[in-house]
TrEMBL record:
Domain Alpha-2-macroglobulin: 734-823
Name of the protein described by the UniProt record: Alpha-2-macroglobulin-like protein 1
Example GO molecular function: serine-type endopeptidase inhibitor activity
Domain Alpha-2-macroglobulin bait region: residue ranges: 443-592
Signal sequence annotation: 1-17
Keyword set includes Transmembrane helix: no
Chief location: secreted
Domain Alpha-macroglobulin receptor-binding residue range list: 1349-1437
Organism field: Synaphobranchus kaupii
Keyword Cell membrane on entry: no
Length: 1450
């Protein structure tokens, strides 16, 4: 109780008025500032008696700084700048003012907040969306709060995928030139979703920018639905206008399906829809009047169905491309709405009260609208009649001289009748409170009608009225002003105003706001004057400033339109010395993400203080206002109230509104009624017989994005002559992404070749310089030609199939042209005119025409099809019109590629030889034989020679197998071999920059892909989170591979640590690692428990990772393996264990295991190898276990009976097994074999030596190849013409040469398969005029000797001219046996976990005809075991419409 009384006494003392003899003082300073910045403080002192010492100081826990110290003998006013001390955390400081004289001693303190210094970080990507496989390009800019370049150091810049995996990282990136330029490639398998770029400063502040990776097709055109802003209750119909426009600005011709719906937000109300069909006119638009009442829309009440939605599907003529557009509008009961805007919450008697009334509604209803305005003040009613302008705005300025009372209410009506009836109707209300002034004198700053321009000074106007005797004889009065921007006082001054005669002084004053570009986004102005013996008179107001920057940047193309492939000149102008970031992207990208552009609003929105409003919580003033009482009793106290000012009802509120602290002994606050301190006040409040002091602190009112860091896209988170002919082949989405210095002149012209896309290119740019940041207004260039040709053809066909080639020619000239369209002849296909077709026609303005040829593909491979359209110079007339010839782009040529494939299925046979002639010439004969039945013309053969055993794998690091890579284990084939190749080339000093760059790119992309298969617990599985758990074997494989790759690329160590932790949790009491998850690699089964095999593999992985053999996990695992040695009856297990114990340096066990393996080795003319005792002849397993033996021999100390020649015999056999791409049969055998071969190649590498390889044939072929240390990595290849044929290979010299002859041919699908059975069938209704839809059903069954298979792949080729209907994939995705579905060009790949023996599985998909093909060939379907490709089956299916001649007419 005593404590509360003491608080009350102190607050009463603080709230008491100034003594009449005290000198008056006023100190103004911002309520918050930034450490290390320069701030301004202003002091004002009015003397009463004698000289006074006036001192201002800044006090913190660390220091006291004197800001001003003066001996004052006359009225004093001064503003001084001071350096704010730096801080590392938000710090509350004190401003201390003291006034001392002979008989005067005044002292007072106020709190201000000092924030740590920081910078603005802007992250900008070249595009808001990307396709998987595209490169992410982004730039980071660092600015201070004045938009000057800030030398920031980013401790970490990282890129996270949608699962929050860190997939890329850049450390200690400093910005010295103002802009940091970074990029990162993504993979074609990149996970789709939102990615995040995060930049961390050394002070721990993070800024993020997001972008999205999705599969998309850029829209060729935009569909816009135009509706009225509102539909009124009395309307029975409305007009819908829908337009299609190409990105290059021309109209789209096509048909529309339009759905018009009433939707209700109420859960139980149905949706009513109507459908309409429309066609565009020549402007690309269609208009229709739609009835919105009656029929299905009879319940269109605005309260139940408040909106109307229109969705349109527009189909482009000629191509069938369909795009959507939508729009919506609201139903309203009334025609118009009115409201008050920019109308003050307080009035000042004697000064006009200015405001606006805004009328909302249809444009025809709001202009010149009569508005009736009434004011009500203490029973007095006044009325005015106003008229709106064209925008529906009615401004008013009301005389307040006769407004009495504390409140005045305003009412606005749209009908006079409503004012007489008092009926609210279409009306608006507003209440204004009287501003408190002790002396009834007022100052009011006038609002600006619009934001102040940033290129010239702004004008501040104010009115004043002064009442009282004090100024009766005074002729002039000094006024003072402060201008704040971004929270700091940046301008100040004072001026003298001449006063009129008379008791009441009234007038206007003005002054200029200078350098307004520095004041944006708001100039917060305080104007005040000190009245002798009467206190302060003040007002404050926010003036919005146009958002602009000091660095004036402009971009302009020299021409607004240019031909594709032509030269474009982008003129850049900026402050001399600027570095400019330029970007130009396809307008189609912005159609998909229109809100992702960098803008002045977004830059200013990053400011920690946009403008000040109220005080931060930590520096709030908790002083009570004075209280007024008619009683002299001391038992009165100010009533409890909220001290946080939210309006400007008194002088205190004037300063609070702009965040200025006023340290003064003037009376600033409006008095409040005093309440008696009685027991009844505290009754029921927990205090008996006394009062409760209720303090309700206000909140800091910083308007803007916030100084802490907040989330959001791009936000700071918690924080030449033209060519006569154009040939178009270059179609990027980002055209320009350049960093360009403008030099001392401040100007530069950037020359670029215009891409071949006919579209609008949206260009933007920003610049940094010592003068500041600048942002250019967007500009554009339309890549366009007066007429052009577009081709429609299938992606691929089978040889001898016949299809129509359609060329659509567009003429966008205003006049007619005579166009001749031609197909360039080629030996690769035959092209014939269609019956009755003409290829020379008139084409008038805004018209298009389709020209057709019938093509038959005759040559296998990729075929170029070239079509040209030429505008002819001729005297012929088009109708009655003389034809014209365009000045530029008279010929347009388009080249498209068609893939022509053979019938049947491809077979590949490799004949390999590792020839080492050091002991004398070495010869080998190779016979190329074809089967009795093969596809005529499909056979081809090639010969390649390399001087390095690893050369073929180096050439094909991205395609070591001709198989899909759609699961986590298969992806590692594109990852792990790069590590072994890089190590080998480093050891042998052959690592060239281009090879290193290529390998590191594959490492980065493989790393990104593998994260798609990561589980949240750190484990990995074949299909990621679609699997129920991680997989022991794959997790170990990924762990060791990531560890090996850290030498070359960034990989977050957490991924390795978490994988190891997960593996440690799988240990059992006997030390063995249990098998978790699906083990696709069945070669690790058989003869010994899965757990022993997995333990051997995991232990080897840990040891490869560098884990010490004394590590507890390694020790217990080795114990498990040692105990299991007596149980081993599997050659595969023996080979793997020999490698594991070699890494563990257990030489006795190693020697024993290798000795046993030697006894079961198989020696042939090709060399030495091992086969699985339960699966002899299985190439993949044989390669893998043979490679483990080679690893065991080369990873430890030499064994007496197993020298390098023993290893050489193994390598000879492995070399014979290599496929044409440098890999082997499957994934794991390829990975292990390449790891072993790189060890061997490094051990046997010799810089010197050279050899000559001579290849001859009985048919007269002869060719010679030279191999030496300078070209040992060169891939030398020739095509062989004699197939079949016998070739002789002879090597002479001192260097080994790796020679491979590859034979490829196609065979019809075999009819008998023992391991698998596959059947396919297509059904559907054949239509002669419309597109044909076919349902393809595929049945597969496993018939082999195992109970179930490894992972199974089903590959389905689509019929030529058909496309996959995307919606049909849902059934496949929902099938529990299907783990993944991939679409490739012309193929669908289905991944299955497994197939159980003799269990038939069926799968379905729907294909739709895109291009009609005649003589349609069957399409092949294939099923095979991924890890044992010798288990496979092939079949084919045909279209039920293929035999119908009339349906195949083109």
């Amino acid at each position: 109780m005593l404590g509360l009384l003491l608080i009350a006494c102190l607050l009463l003392q603080a709230a008491s008025s100034r003594h009449p003899d005290e000198p008056m003082y006023l100190v103004t300073v911002t309520s918050q500032t930034t450490g290390g910045s320069t701030e301004t403080i202003c002091g004002h002192l009015l003397l009463q008696k004698g000289p006074l010492s006036f001192m201002l100081a800044l006090e913190t826990d660390a220091s006291n700084i004197t800001l001003l110290e003066e001996l004052v003998t006359t009225e004093f006013h001064r503003c001084v700048q001071f350096q704010v001390p730096p801080v590392v955390t938000e710090t509350v400081a004190l401003i201390h003012a003291s006034v001392k004289g002979e008989k005067t001693s005044l002292s007072k303190k106020i709190k201000i907040l000092i924030k740590p210094s920081s910078s603005l970080t802007i992250i900008m990507t070249d595009k808001p969306i990307y396709k998987p496989g595209q490169t992410i390009k982004f730039r980071i800019v660092s600015l201070d709060y004045s938009f000057l370049p800030y030398k920031e150091v980013y401790q970490t810049v990282e890129l996270q995928d949608p699962n929050s995996n860190r997939i890329a990282q850049w450390l200690n990136q400093s910005i010295t030139t103002g802009i940091l330029d970074l990029s990162h490639p993504t993979t074609r398998e990149a996970k789709q979703g939102v990615y995040t770029i995060s930049a961390w400063t050394t002070r721990g502040i993070i800024t993020t920018q997001t972008f999205e990776i999705i599969e998309y097709v850029l829209p060729k055109f935009e569909v816009k639905v135009h509706l009225p802003d509102v539909i009124f209750g009395q309307d029975i119909k409305t007009t819908v206008k829908i337009c299609g426009k190409y990105t290059y600005g021309k109209p789209v011709m096509g048909s529309m399906k339009v759905q018009v719906c009433h939707k209700s937000p109420l859960p139980y109300c149905p949706t009513f829809c109507m459908e309409h069909t429309m066609r565009t006119d020549k402007t690309g638009c269609a208009t229709k009047s739609i009835y919105i009442t009656g029929g299905s829309f009879q319940y269109g009440y605005p309260n139940i169905y408040p909106s109307l939605t229109v969705v349109c599907e527009m189909e482009e003529d000629g191509t069938g491309v369909v795009l959507k557009g939508s729009g919506s509008t609201k139903f309203v009961s009334d025609e118009i709405f009115i409201k008050f805007q920019d109308t003050p919450s307080t009035f000042k008697p004697g000064i006009n009260y200015d405001g606006k009334i805004i009328v909302k509604g249809a444009a025809s209803l709001i202009a010149n609208k009569t508005i009736f305005l009434s004011t009500y003040s203490m029973g007095n009613i006044s009325r005015w009649t106003l008229t709106t302008d064209s925008e529906g705005v009615a401004s008013f300025s009301l005389d307040t001289s006769y407004w009495s009372g504390e409140l005045t209410s305003l009412q606005a009506y749209c009908h006079e009748l409503l004012t007489q009836m008092g009926f609210p109707g279409r009306s608006a209300g507003h209440t204004a409170s009287k501003f408190y002034s002790k002396n009834n004198s007022f100052l009011s700053i006038k609002q600006a009608k619009e934001p102040l321009p940033c290129d010239k000074d702004g004008q501040v106007l104010a009115s004043y009225i002064i009442r009282g005797e004090e100024l009766k004889e005074k002729k002039t009065l000094d006024f003072f002003y402060l201008v704040l921007s971004k929270g700091s006082i940046v301008q100040h001054g004072h001026f003298e105003v001449m006063l009129n005669e008379g008791e009441v002084k009234r007038g206007e004053l003005s002054f200029s706001l200078q350098q307004t570009e520095d004041l944006a986004p708001y100039a917060q102005v305080v104007v005040y004057t000190v009245l002798p013996n009467a206190g302060l008179m003040a007002d404050s107001l926010d003036f919005p400033i146009q958002l602009c920057f000091k660095n004036k940047v402009s971009l302009q193309f020299s021409s607004s339109q240019e031909l594709p492939g032509g030269k474009a000149f982008l003129e850049v102008q900026a402050q001399p010395g600027s570095l400019c970031s330029l970007r130009a992207i396809d307008q189609s990208v912005l159609l998909m993400r229109p809100d992702e552009e960098l803008s002045a609003q977004k830059i200013y929105g990053k400011l920690p203080v946009y403008k000040l409003s109220e005080y931060p919580y930590d520096v709030q003033d908790w002083e009570m206002p004075p209280c007024l009482s008619h009683s002299t009793s001391s038992s009165h106290f100010a009533q409890p109230l909220n001290f946080g000012h939210t309006d400007k009802t008194d002088l205190y509120g004037i300063f609070v509104a702009v965040g200025v602290k006023a340290l003064t002994n003037f009376d600033m606050k409006k008095p409040v009624p005093c309440l008696p301190m009685t027991s009844s006040y505290g009754a029921g409040r927990g205090v008996s017989g006394n009062f409760v002091l209720q303090l309700h602190p206000g909140s800091a009112g910083i308007v803007g994005s916030g100084g802490i860091v907040g989330s959001g896209r791009g936000g700071t988170i918690q924080p030449p002559k033209p060519f006569a002919e154009t040939i178009r082949t270059f179609f990027p989405e980002t055209w320009i992404w350049e960093l360009v210095p403008v030099g001392d002149s401040g100007r530069i012209t950037v020359e670029q070749t215009v891409p071949d896309t006919i579209t609008k290119w949206a260009a933007s740019g920003f610049c940094t310089s010592p003068a500041g940041f600048g942002l250019a207004a967007n500009t554009s260039l339309t890549a366009f030609q007066p007429f052009f040709v577009s081709l429609t053809l299938p992606y691929s066909v089978i040889r001898e199939e016949v299809f129509p080639l359609k060329a659509m020619v567009f003429n966008y000239l205003s006049r007619c042209i005579m166009v001749h369209v031609s197909l360039r002849e080629s030996a690769q296909f035959t092209g014939q005119p269609c019956e009755g077709c003409q290829y020379r026609r008139c084409l008038c303005g805004e018209e298009s025409e389709t020209f057709t040829w019938v093509l038959t593909a005759t040559t296998l491979g990729r075929v170029n099809i070239t079509v040209s359209a030429e505008a002819l110079s001729t005297e012929e007339l088009c109708g009655n019109e003389v034809v014209t010839v365009p000045e530029r782009g008279q010929i347009d040529t388009v080249v498209r590629t068609l893939l022509v494939e053979p019938e049947g299925t491809e077979q590949t046979i490799s004949h390999n030889a590792l020839l080492c002639p050091q002991e004398g010439a070495v010869e080998k004969a190779v016979s190329l034989e074809l089967p009795e039945v093969f596809v005529e013309g499909s056979a081809k053969a090639s010969l390649s020679v390399l001087g390095d055993l690893m050369g073929r794998a180096m050439k094909n690091l991205d395609s070591l197998l001709a198989m899909p890579f759609g699961c986590g284990e298969q992806n590692m084939l594109r990852f792990a071999p790069n590590i072994y190749i890089l190590r080998y080339l480093e050891i042998t000093e052959q690592l060239a920059p281009e090879i290193k760059s290529k390998a590191i790119t594959y490492l980065k992309s493989g790393f990104q892909r593998e994260l798609n298969y990561k589980h949240s617990d750190g484990s990995y599985s074949a299909f990621g989170k679609s699997d129920s758990s991680g997989n022991t074997w794959l997790t170990a494989f990924v762990m060791k591979s990531f560890g090996g790759a850290t030498r070359y690329i960034f990989i977050d160590p957490q991924y390795i640590t978490s994988a190891k932790l997960w593996l440690s949790l799988q240990r059992q009491t006997n030390g063995c690692i249990k098998s978790v998850g699906k083990l696709f690699h069945n070669g690790m089964k058989g003869g010994v428990s899965d757990e022993v095999m997995l333990t051997a593999y995991v232990t080897a992985a840990l040891l490869e990772l560098g884990t010490n053999s004394t590590d507890p996990m390694v020790q217990t695992s080795l114990s498990c393996l040692t105990l299991a040695l007596d149980q081993i009856n599997s050659t595969y297990a023996t080979a793997l264990l020999s490698y594991t114990f070699t890494l563990a340096r257990d030489n006795n066990t190693r020697a024993s295991l290798i000795g046993h393996l030697d006894k079961v080795a198989i020696i042939t003319a090709q060399g030495r190898h091992w086969e699985h005792n339960w699966a002899p002849g299985k190439g993949s397993l044989a390669v893998e276990m043979t490679s483990y033996v080679l690893l065991a021999l080369l990873s430890g100390p030499p064994l007496s009976d197993f020298d390098l020649s023993y290893s050489t015999s193994i390598v000879h056999w492995l070399a014979h097994q290599q496929n044409p791409y440098g890999g082997f049969s499957s994934t794991q055998d390829t990975v292990v074999a390449l790891q072993a071969l790189t060890l061997y190649a490094a051990a046997t590498f010799s810089k010197g030596g050279a050899s000559t390889v001579m290849v001859t044939s009985a048919g007269g072929y002869e060719s010679q190849f030279h191999v030496d240390e300078h070209n040992r990595l060169l891939y030398q290849e020739e095509q062989l013409q004699e197939v079949p044929g016998v070739y002789s290979i002879k090597a002479e010299g001192k260097a080994c040469a790796f020679v491979q002859i590859t034979l490829q041919y196609n065979i019809p699908p075999p009819t008998d398969f023992s391991s698998f059975t596959i059947n396919a069938n297509a059904t559907g209704v054949c239509k002669s005029t419309k597109k044909t839809f076919l349902t393809v059903s595929v049945q597969v069954r496993y018939n082999g000797g195992r109970e179930k298979t490894n992972m199974v792949i089903i590959s389905i080729r689509l019929l030529s001219g058909f496309l996959l209907q995307k919606s049909s994939l849902k059934q496949l995705h929902d099938d529990s046996t299907v783990k993944r579905v991939e679409e490739e060009e012309g193929h669908l790949i289905i991944y299955l976990d497994e197939l159980k023996k003799m269990a038939t599985m069926s799968y379905f998909l729907v294909i739709v005809e895109d291009v009609r093909v005649r003589n349609l060939k069957p399409a092949v379907v294939k099923v095979y075991d991924y890890y044992d490709k010798s288990d496979e089956a092939v079949s084919e299916y045909s279209s039920p419409c293929a035999q119908s001649d009339d349906l195949n007419q083109l």
